[in-house]
Write a structure and sequence with these properties.
Length: about 200
Amino acid sequence: MRAMKNIVILISGRGSNMQAIVKAARAEQWPARIAAVVSNRADAEGLAFAEKAGIATCVVPSKDYSDREAFDRALQTAIDSFAPDLVVLAGFMRILTASFVDHYEGRLMNIHPSLLPNFTGLATHRQALAAGVRVHGATVHFVTAELDHGPIVDQAIVSVMPEDTEQSLAERVLIQEHIIYPRAVRWFIEGRLTIEDGRVRVAA
Ligand code: GRF
């Protein structure tokens, strides 16, 4: 195996999780390079950061594809041209086909802004407030064909305050996302993660 592992990060927007991973990889000198940042939207704000950081960027515009299969095939071709060891979904707002997910089995990670299995899908902070939960958070997980499911790598907990709004809650959760996502990616790069019976073990 190559000493340096290739990470490809997929974004659709702001890309703050992508930035956190890029910064951690450099500051901590991971044996990995961010080989590319790929977006399904040309206007994703995160692309500018990646370009400035000297990272290859690539846009596969989802709006140009009428069917999901064709888009996912084009996306897969673009990603695979960077020979990824790990594909990281960081605010990538697309539902992926089963064949795409299968192709990257065991090397496709996502972060979801809730304590899974609670509050899958969109508007997770609104869902949490509506449910009246006292704790909320974020989950890093391997991706499987079922949306927002898949073996959990790590979670972070945030207390929900009576005065919280969707925005205030989102901000506090995001701070935790920027801690747990780079750390989970690093564990993968270090070869410390194994999946057994749908559960992730983190080796010491
Ligand atoms: C994050 O809250 C992430 O958990 C969710 O979408 C948001 C993306 O933010 N999937 P960013 O693009 O990483 O800033």
